[in-house]
What we know:
This protein has eight helices and no strands. The chain is mainly α. Helix 2 packs across helix 3 and helix 2 packs across helix 6 (about 115-130).
Amino acid sequence: MELELKSANTMNKNSILTNLSESDKARFGKQAFATQSTPQQVFSSIWALESEVNNGGFSQYFLNESCETATFVAEALDTIGAPRTADICRRAIAAAFPTGVPSTPDAVSAAAAGFSGEVLENLGTLDNEFLEYPNNLTDWLFAYVAKHPEEFGKLPKADEA
């Protein structure tokens, strides 16, 4: 029973975060990442990461527009208290860009389009680690957003959603 309640609570939090991402309160996909406030960048980074890695892995994350968050995503994960996931991201970035992340999102995407088979294999291993969810990103991102009502508005409680 407790596991069911916890799962339902996480699903409610995910629904609330999804609604937030589509609202006028979140800057995700609506404002250039570089011009967002730090709380908005934290939300955008983690939201983009989860969307892309869950859909097509780190190679897709680096290929698509979400790559603009790549230089900040590990810091964002550390900010919400997800060090194990931050470590996976740092290793994915190092595997993808051993000489450093290119300076523009277009350059990141261009580099990602040319990843070697070895890089893709290494990223695939890291995809699997990420998908094991060593940190509960939904709960921790929800808690972070809830601490910033000045940015995101007051969130409903997960059991009220």
